[in-house]
């Protein structure tokens, strides 16, 4: 059985086992079984327990250092295997203490103000662009509607103009034909007038002129 005067860092159980190992830093001894190893395991000369190995890496961890599991049930680990932080960690949202606060220079203030100003101006410009785009879009929709109505009106007037032009062309053809007929009739009338005059002259050439006839009434 292991020496009971040794400072045990594991279960400190009264068992018939002489295989143990001693930490080179805290001088606590540990059963092989508590560490989950056996006598055939190769161990370095300056072996450190889990608690001492953890303390080298980080000394502000509240997580308890547990020894390796073993097959012994209903055993308690000594409080010496638990390492606690010596100070409290400051909350992320808590304000910094005056001693740890840094002095802000004028250039830093200007940089912060410029950054805030640029963000606000960018947001303002975005809102202005959205407002202008919305307003222009609404006006353009109204203008497009009016242009469509105007196009319909122009199309209707163009159709009416085409109909009127066709009618005018038809009437022009009729008038031209009437002019031609009128000219033909005038030519015919002139020819007939000449013929009538000629016939009158020919009829007068066969007339007998009687002169010196007394203008008295005959008595019966």
Outline the fold blueprint.
Elements: E1 20-22, E2 29-31, H1 32-35, H2 50-57, H3 106-205
Antiparallel strand pairs: 1-2
Please tell me about this protein's structure.
- One of its GO terms (molecular function) is zinc ion binding.
- Pfam families: PHD.
- Keywords: Coiled coil, Metal-binding, Zinc, Zinc-finger.
- The chain has 220 residues and is mainly α.
- It folds into two domains: 88 residues, Herpes Virus-1 (2-Layer Sandwich), CATH 3.30.40; 87 residues.
- Helix content is 51%, strand content 3%.
- It contains three helices and two strands, in the order ββααα.
- A two-stranded antiparallel sheet has the order 1-2.
- β1 and β2 form a beta hairpin.
- About 20% of the residues have low confidence.
* Radius of gyration, CA atoms, in whole angstroms: 67 Å
Any low-confidence stretches, pLDDT <50, length ≥5? 58-101
Q: Which sequence of strands runs across the widest sheet?
A: 1-2
Distance between the amino and carboxyl termini: 212 Å
Biggest sheet statistics: 2 strands, antiparallel
**H/E element sequence:** EEHHH
How is the CATH topology of the largest domain named? Herpes Virus-1
Percentage of residues in DSSP E strands? under 5%
Total strand segments = 2
GO molecular function: zinc ion binding
Coiled coil: 147-202
InterPro entries: Znf_FYVE_PHD (IPR011011), Znf_PHD-finger (IPR019787), Znf_RING/FYVE/PHD (IPR013083)
Domain PHD-type: 10-52
């Amino acid at each position: 059985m292991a020496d009971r005067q040794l400072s045990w860092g594991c279960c400190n159980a009264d068992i018939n086992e002489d295989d143990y190992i001693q930490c080179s830093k805290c001088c606590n001894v540990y059963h092989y079984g508590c560490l989950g190893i056996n006598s055939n395991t190769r161990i370095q000369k300056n072996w450190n327990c889990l608690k001492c190995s953890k303390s080298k890496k980080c000394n502000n961890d509240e997580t308890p250092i547990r020894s390796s599991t073993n097959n012994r049930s209903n055993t308690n680990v000594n409080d010496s295997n638990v390492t606690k932080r010596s100070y409290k960690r400051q909350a992320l949202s808590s304000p910094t203490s005056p001693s740890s606060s840094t002095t802000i220079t004028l250039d830093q203030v200007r940089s912060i103000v410029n950054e805030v100003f640029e963000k606000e101006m960018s947001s303002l410009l975005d809102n202005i662009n959205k407002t202008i785009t919305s307003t222009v879009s609404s006006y353009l929709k109204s203008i497009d509607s009016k242009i469509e109505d105007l196009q319909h009106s122009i199309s209707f007037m163009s159709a009416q103009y085409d109909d009127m032009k066709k009618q005018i062309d038809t009437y022009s053809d009729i008038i031209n034909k009437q002019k031609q007929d009128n000219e033909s009739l005038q030519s015919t009338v002139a020819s007939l007038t000449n013929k009538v005059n000629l016939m009158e002259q020919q009829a007068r050439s066969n007339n007998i002129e009687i002169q010196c006839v007394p203008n008295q009434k005959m008595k019966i």
